């Protein structure tokens, strides 16, 4: 009888833990937010993308790459914006594959390169 009681208790705890985890992760795996990564060669500098709820996007610490829109189509993140440099501004659209998305990490694939971002913590 003790074995059956323990099994029932363990199953109940598992069910509660799974439900709590699913609710928490489901709520926090939204792609919206501020995603950052270290700037290559500059260990104390960060760059990234801000994805706002209304489809607006902006660059974080990237003056020459000005994102302004984003959309999701399946597992693809499409970023639109303007490339600014050498006295000219050019509209662009980048399509990236969302390889992984969790509450605090996003990995995007651009061609053969994977770009890993961390969700910026709320201040």
Structure description:
With 123 residues, the chain is an alpha+beta fold. It folds into 2 domains: 1-29; 31-119, Lipocalin (Beta Barrel). It is built from 1 helix and 8 strands; from the N terminus they run αββββββββ. The protein has an 8-stranded antiparallel beta sheet, with no helix packed on it. The protein is globular. The model is unreliable at 1-28 (pLDDT under 50). InterPro entries: Lipocalin-like. Residues 28-119 form the Lipocalin-like domain. Keywords: Signal. Residues 1-17 form the signal peptide. Pfam families: Lipocalin_3 (PF12702).
What's the topology here?
Layout: H1 2-28, E1 33-39, E2 42-51, E3 57-60, E4 65-73, E5 76-85, E6 88-101, E7 105-110, E8 113-119
Antiparallel strand pairs: 1-2, 1-8, 2-3, 4-5, 5-6, 6-7, 7-8
Protein name: Lipocalin-like domain-containing protein
Domain Lipocalin-like: 28-119
Signal peptide: 1-17
